[in-house]
Design a protein that fits this description.
Keywords: Carbohydrate metabolism, Glycosidase, Hydrolase, Polysaccharide degradation, Signal, Xylan degradation. The structure is a single chain. The relative contact order is 0.13. The chain is 42% helix and 18% strand. Strands 1-2-3-4-5-6-8-9 form an eight-stranded parallel barrel, surrounded by six helices. Helix 10 runs parallel beside helix 11. With 312 residues, it is α/β, with parallel strands linked by helices. It is built from 13 helices and ten strands. It has a single domain, classed as Alpha-Beta Barrel (TIM Barrel). The structure holds (3S,4R)-3-hydroxy-2-oxopiperidin-4-yl beta-D-xylopyranoside. (3S,4R)-3-hydroxy-2-oxopiperidin-4-yl beta-D-xylopyranoside (XIL) binds next to loops.
Length: 312
């Protein structure tokens, strides 16, 4: 079979997956290298992973993934620089003045983006800034620095690697709704202010049978603002156990997501959040749910895989 990455490339799109560095060997490594042309470290580039204690860095897994990507002619999506979650305890539990927070953020961005300058094609600079109702999420960053932490982060990321594409990434922003409209208004105002922003990431952690009907329309409205759109963390979960009816619906859902992206020129492509059910975050985070990816636990392609092929 033709690898997904080649089918996608023929349509001007990319096909990515989140990966775990320690698994990039054997069948997992073969499939990650063969089927995909973008990799996102699932956890390895998060602040808690790279700076577990202040001033003491661990780049081993991130380096491994970037090296693997280069060996397989793949691009890397850096994930993620500024987030409320998976921060090291020393950072999350510290009490910081606004000036200190600002310096911490700037140094972190300089250090991480600088380390991978020229080797990471796009960064999820800010992750999950909004609540469901479109207000800003209360976080270490928002509470200390106000909404302009987002503009600051983007500006510092641009300075650290002018060639990297800079994204804001969030979930439940796939359809037109209050949260995606808040993201839309933010991007519009950043563009008007001249703050560097190249794209939005729509995570797309979806539920079987619930692909938003306004997905394509929503992608299009961001494209019309003059930014790229990437589907950054696609998975489509179901109540376990899976059965053939659910897997068939899931395949239709994967196809619908692919088609929404294929229909909009500025949609750069789709990244799945793990390509095998054996390396998916879903069962740990949503008890009783799973089977969310295109390959089963034994690396057999599921109907969802076939559906991606058909869409491409
Ligand atoms: C998840 C990872 O896949 C898990 O291994 C980890 O325990 C928690 O984070 N949105 C994001 C990702 O932006 O970083 C999250 O990744 C999934 C939700």
């Amino acid at each position: 079979d033709t690898p997904l990455r080649d089918l996608a490339a023929a349509k001007g799109k990319v096909m990515g997956t989140a990966v775990t560095g320690s698994k990039l060997t054997g069948t997992y490594g073969d499939l990650a290298g063969r089927e995909f042309n973008w990799l996102t470290p699932g956890n390895a580039m998060k602040w808690a992973s790279v700076e577990p204690s202040q001033g003491s860095f661990n780049w081993a897994e991130a380096d491994q993934i970037v090296n693997f990507a280069e060996a397989h002619d793949q691009d890397v999506r850096g994930h993620t620089l500024v987030w409320h979650s998976q921060n090291p305890n020393w950072l999350a539990n510290g009490s910081w003045t606004p000036a200190q927070l600002s310096t911490l953020m700037q140094n972190h961005i300089n250090t991480e983006v600088g380390r991978y300058k020229g080797r990471v094609a796009a960064w999820d600079v800010v992750n999950e800034p909004f609540n469901e109702d479109g207000t800003y999420r209360s976080t270490l960053w928002y509470d200390g620095l106000g909404a302009d932490y987002i503009a600051s982060a983007l500006t510092w990321a641009r300075a650290a690697d002018p060639a990297a594409k800079l994204y804001i990434n969030d979930y439940n922003v796939e359809g037109v709704n209050a949260k995606s409209t808040a993201l839309y208004n933010l991007v519009k105002s950043l563009k008007e202010r001249g703050v560097p922003i190249d794209g939005v990431g729509l995570q797309a952690h979806l539920i079987v049978g619930q692909v938003p009907s306004s997905f394509q329309q929503n992608i299009q409205r961001f494209a019309d603002l003059g930014v790229d759109v990437a589907i950054t963390e696609l998975d489509i979960r179901m109540q376990l156990p899976s059965d053939s009816a659910k897997l068939t619906q899931q395949a239709a859902d994967y196809k619908a997501v692919m088609n929404a992206c294929l229909a909009v020129t500025r949609c750069t492509g789709v990244t799945v959040w793990g390509f095998t059910d054996s390396d998916s975050w879903i069962p740990d985070t949503f008890p009783g749910q799973g089977a969310a990816t295109p390959y089963d636990e034994n690396y057999a392609p599921k109907p969802a895989y076939r559906a991606i092929v058909e869409a491409l």
